[in-house]
Design goal:
two-stranded antiparallel ribbon, mainly alpha
């Protein structure tokens, strides 16, 4: 058995924008339980772009589009890691502190198979089944 808190994977961050906390934006997904992955990611990207625009009110449309594309690629490059971390966070909120190797492997496989159209509600049900929560 391993502690869930030790299983989180690091994100692949580019850190191209000094005023944007990429890890915070990515991990904001953890607070959502409803909607598809695509809907939630779109909402998070829009919120991050709007926040950045408020910091720099003189942002041009081109800069906003570039930031949007940057954040989209950030989410896509981290999707598998993000989903695994989402599953681990969900289990910690259950509360569950430890998990066996077989369940970790199953969670990793589930994270690899997640598509953007997957509803978060269904994913949490699958996690419940896998972990018998």
């Amino acid at each position: 058995m391993q502690k869930i808190s030790t299983l989180y994977r690091p994100f692949h961050l580019k850190k191209s924008y000094k005023d944007i906390n990429e890890e915070q934006i990515l991990s904001s997904l953890y607070t959502y339980k409803n909607g598809t992955v695509e809907e939630v990611v779109s909402r998070l990207i829009n919120e991050a772009v709007l926040q950045h625009m408020h910091l720099y009110i003189d942002s041009t449309i081109t800069q906003v589009v570039a930031l949007n594309e940057y954040l989209c690629s950030l989410f896509m490059n981290n999707l598998e890691t993000l989903m695994l971390n989402y599953f681990l966070y969900y289990l910690e909120t259950m509360p569950m502190e430890e998990i066996d190797e077989e369940t970790i492997t199953k969670l990793e496989q589930l994270a690899q198979s997640v598509e953007m159209t997957a509803p978060l509600e269904e994913l949490t049900l699958k996690i419940d089944e896998l972990c018998k929560v």
